[in-house]
Write a structure and sequence with these properties.
This protein has seven helices and four strands; from the N terminus they run αααββββαααα. With 268 residues, the protein is mainly alpha-helical. It has two domains: 65 residues; 167 residues, f41 fragment of flagellin, N-terminal domain (Up-down Bundle), CATH 1.20.1330. Helix 1 packs antiparallel against helix 6, helix 3 runs antiparallel to helix 4 and helix 4 crosses helix 5.
Length: 268
């Protein structure tokens, strides 16, 4: 039996230190909700988690872009519905203006309404969405993935196109002019049908892509959770285990420190 070196106490202190560190680590993980409290906990997992978090953020940003583009398309279609109603009324006025039983005063009234509706369509052509032209000659290019490498070019809707401007510039002050205006308005209605179909196709394409990005974001989040999120049930069990080890280790260390006192009895 020796006095200078108490191996039992040293061993107990070493085990107690390990148990205390594990207890503190379990406590940190439970309190933070993360398995990776510091880089040393899982260096490779931390690197992968950082990359996944970046991709999740990029995917969500792309999905936000798509949502805004869908709102843009829905706004376009809302305006085009009203333009369609105006063109329908203009076509009716063009036919009524050809009625030989109408007086010149009545024809003038028809022409006034026809011109007002044409001006409405012309003004609508300059409408904007958050400062961006709704009806320009160039369609928007929307980033549709998290890396910025894939874009979707939306088909443009141009209310300044000749099919519209010709119809809105007509007059119906005579039967001949009214007949010509009716032809032009009919062409504008045909163009409108094509434009609304294009808007619908844009919106459908963007909706599918947005749903796809939503699925991707969910799966990336799940993968990151597997790496970084703490399993509360498992860690709670470890926490209870390490609490017991710390308590028993403290008790055993105290006992080991008392053992050398028995040597004194040999000196008496």
């Amino acid at each position: 039996m020796v006095i200078n070196t108490n191996m039992a106490a040293l061993t107990s202190a070493s085990n107690l230190n390990k148990s205390t560190n594990e207890l503190n680590n379990a406590l940190a993980q439970l309190s933070s909700g993360s398995k990776i409290v510091s880089p040393m906990d899982d260096p490779a997992g931390l690197a992968e988690s950082i990359a996944l978090n970046a991709q999740i953020g990029q995917t969500q940003a792309a999905n936000d872009n798509i949502s805004n583009a869908i709102s843009f398309s829905q706004t376009q279609d809302g305006y085009l519905q009203q333009v369609g109603a105006a063109l329908d009324q203009m076509s009716m006025l063009a036919i009524e203006a050809q009625d030989p039983t109408k007086t010149s005063t009545e024809i003038a009234d028809y022409n006034t309404e026809f011109a007002a509706l044409g001006a409405y369509i012309t003004n609508t052509a300059s409408a904007t969405f958050n400062g961006i032209s709704l009806f320009g000659s160039t369609g928007l290019s929307v980033t549709t993935d998290g890396t910025g490498g894939t874009n979707f070019s939306m088909t443009a809707v141009n209310l300044g196109a000749s099919a519209y401007s010709t119809a809105t510039g007509d007059t119906i002050t005579s039967a001949t002019l009214a007949a010509s205006a009716l032809t032009d308005v009919t062409a504008a209605i045909t163009q409108l049908a094509t434009d609304r179909a294009n808007v619908g196709a844009n919106e459908e394409r963007l909706t599918y892509t947005g749903d796809e990005l939503g699925v991707l974001s969910d799966n990336l989040t799940a993968a990151n959770s597997t790496i970084s999120d703490v399993d509360v049930a498992t860690e709670s069990t470890k926490y209870a285990e390490y609490q017991i080890l710390v308590q028993s280790g403290t008790s055993m260390l105290a006992q080991a420190n008392q053992n050398p006192q028995s040597v004194l009895k040999l000196l008496q």
